[in-house]
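Appendix B. One record, verbatim.
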Amino acid sequence: MNIKRLFRHLLLPPWLARRTFPPAVMRRVEEAVRESERTHRGELCVAVEAGLDLESLWRGQSPRARAEEVFSQLRVWDTAENSGVLLYINWADRDIEIVADRGINARVTQGEWEAICLVIEQSFRAGQFEAGLLEGIRRITRLLAVNFPGASDNVDELVNRPALL
């Protein structure tokens, strides 16, 4: 177990993530997700987590493994076309992960997702949290619009409100 990581997670209060992403920002993110989903058949979810609990840290859970767990917990996989995408932010690790369901992964490469994560991480390092998150959503939207274009009967299957975990 990495002691430095343990302290970073356990000493990071959840309110710090809420201060970085206050309700007004989360409303704008929710609206960006809603607008995004009008252009494609994918379902985009955003989750922000301040830090992991002691058990997860003790097991050495990686941000990627946690993102996959959140993908399941939020039921992002529960879409008719297997078109769910989770944009996961682990604040303590300063890590961004994108987890996509199999319908989308058949069309979008992991390298394309990682490029989007890098853009968001760079914005966050510059202190541009809202701008980075919204730019990430725009880039995800472009990928989904090309690979899962919208339809006239596009149904919104998952909640658009970002989750603060």
